[in-house]
Design goal:
Layout: H1 3-27, H2 29-44, E1 49-52, H3 56-69, E2 81-83, H4 88-98, H5 105-111, E3 117-121, H6 128-139, E4 143-148, H7 153-158, E5 161-164, H8 170-196
Parallel strand pairs: 1-2, 1-3, 3-4, 4-5
Helix pairs in contact: 2-8, 3-8
């Protein structure tokens, strides 16, 4: 691959991403606002946010949880957010003892309460372990948000609220999921920063 090929490939990637981001902004504003309202309501009531996903979506789950616990854009109190992907020991023990399908179910059942919110990232919406954790959340019950691709998959039907970003490409879906999470985090961040600001 030549330098020119790499440049053209980069331009095409960003053009696809820009188009999908524009479509997301145009079509999904109300869906994202619902998620943002649920996240803020959960945290204001003393609940916690849980995040999970596989592969790149697992990395996004940890990324986003960190921004709530530590900080996003503003100085404010630490907020309770947990990535169910965060413990290698827990994941491997759950997978070994109960099967890979249960890796998110065990920690959710141990930690979650009915005033919490579970956010599931999945590009396909069909992975057995994300479907299992969505069903487990319904039994607790914990409200669920699914961030999925255009097709949605069965996860979109199980979750209480789903956000279908307009792409079928894994990389673009993951990039847009993170952008959605940052928009929601900014909404939450602003409210809590205003609460801690001296009047």
């Amino acid at each position: 691959m030549t330098h020119a090929d790499a440049r053209i490939g980069a331009m095409q990637h960003f053009e696809r991403l820009a188009l999908a981001a524009e479509q997301t902004a145009e079509r999904l504003g109300p869906d994202i606002a619902t998620y943002a309202d649920w996240a803020l309501t959960t945290l204001r009531a003393g609940g916690r946010l849980f995040f999970c996903g596989n592969g790149g979506s697992a990395a996004t789950a940890e990324h986003v949880a960190t921004e709530y616990v530590v900080r996003f854009r503003r100085s404010r109190s630490a907020l309770p957010a947990i990535a169910l992907t965060g413990s290698t020991g827990m994941l491997t023990a759950s997978g070994n003892d109960f099967g890979f399908e249960e890796i998110f179910v065990r920690p959710l059942l141990a930690l979650a309460r009915s005033d919490d919110l579970l956010v599931i990232h999945s590009t396909s919406g069909g992975s057995p372990n994300v479907l299992a954790v969505a069903r487990a959340a319904a039994r607790i019950p914990v409200r669920t948000v699914a961030l999925v691709g255009a097709a949605g998959g069965p996860l979109a039907d199980i979750a209480d609220h789903s956000i279908h970003v307009p792409s079928s490409e894994t990389a673009t879906i993951q990039e847009l999921h993170l952008a959605v999470e940052h928009a929601v985090a900014d909404h939450v961040d602003a409210w809590f920063a205003s609460e801690t600001r001296p009047s």
